[in-house]
Design a protein that fits this description.
- Helices cover 54% and strands 0% of the residues.
- With 115 residues, the chain is mostly helical.
- The chain has one domain.
């Protein structure tokens, strides 16, 4: 997990976690931990299936996270707009939206109206 957490987005998430009084956990992806913290505080909302996926990500192996977030070994995790986020809520929302986008890409029927 260490090689993922040195990415710029995760270093920013680590700083933000400390600013909001949360202790970053080295064994989990800092940006995922930030989203969970903001969800738990009710400062952003997500449908339950998305929130469950985010919460489950803390137990995923680094390889699974890289696969899910579509991070190749020579690339950074770089969801669009994260560098311009004005506060921790906006940063968490950008990451959450990117995770949901990845869910749609991996599971094309996700959010489908067909049942």
């Amino acid at each position: 997990m260490e090689h993922l957490n040195i990415m710029p987005i995760n270093q920013r998430a680590k700083e933000v976690l400390r600013e909001i009084g949360e202790e970053p956990h080295d064994g989990t992806l800092y940006c995922v931990r930030l989203v969970i913290s903001v969800l738990n505080k009710g400062e952003i909302e997500a449908e339950e299936d998305l929130a469950q996926t985010v919460r489950a990500m803390v137990a995923w192996r680094p390889e699974r996270i890289m696969n899910f977030l579509m991070i190749s070994p020579d690339k950074e995790y770089n969801p669009q707009g994260w560098q311009e986020a004005e506060d921790y809520r906006e940063l968490a929302k950008i990451i959450l939206d990117d995770i949901e986008d990845k869910m749609v890409r991996h599971f094309p029927w996700y959010r489908s109206s067909a049942e």
